């Protein structure tokens, strides 16, 4: 999969709120790049705790559920768009379908 964009992940892990998230986000990024997800079932097989939402949205639990990563996935194009990365508390204040 092509992940757009790593910069958004990096911006979070260098921020004060993302302290401690770097290793987990780097690991997720590498795994996502090496994956060939064809649909939500492929993601659930690899990430059983991921939440599958409507319209290709997927929420990944990062760092033992301390952080959340919201993506929009175009399975047909093999592209993962990073829509949100933040702490669990920040995630609770957003609408994952609209970010």
Q: In short, what is this structure?
A:
By secondary structure, this protein is of the alpha+beta class. The protein has four helices and five strands. The longest helix is centred in the first third of the chain and has 13 residues, at about 20-35.
Word description of this protein:
This protein has 99 residues and is of the alpha+beta class. It has a single domain, classed as RelE-like (YaeB-like fold). Helix content is 32%, strand content 28%. The chain is built from four helices and five strands, in the order βαααββββα. A five-stranded mixed sheet has the order 1-5-4-3-2. Strand 4 and strand 5 form a beta hairpin. Helix 1 packs antiparallel against helix 2. The two termini are 21 Å apart.
- How many helices? 4
Largest sheet: 5 strands, mixed
Q: Indicate the CATH architecture.
A: 2-Layer Sandwich
Helix content: 25-40%
Order of helices and strands: EHHHEEEEH
The secondary-structure class comes to alpha+beta
The CATH top-level class label: Alpha Beta
Distance between the termini: 21 Å
Strand order of the largest sheet: 1-5-4-3-2
Note the overall shape. Answer: globular
Q: Please tell me the overall pLDDT.
A: 95
User: Per CATH, what is the topology?
Assistant: YaeB-like fold
Strand content: 25-35%
Q: What count of domains describes the coordinates?
A: 1
What integer value in Å does the Rg equal? 12 Å
The count of strands amounts to: 5
According to CATH, the homologous superfamily is RelE-like
Low-confidence stretches: none
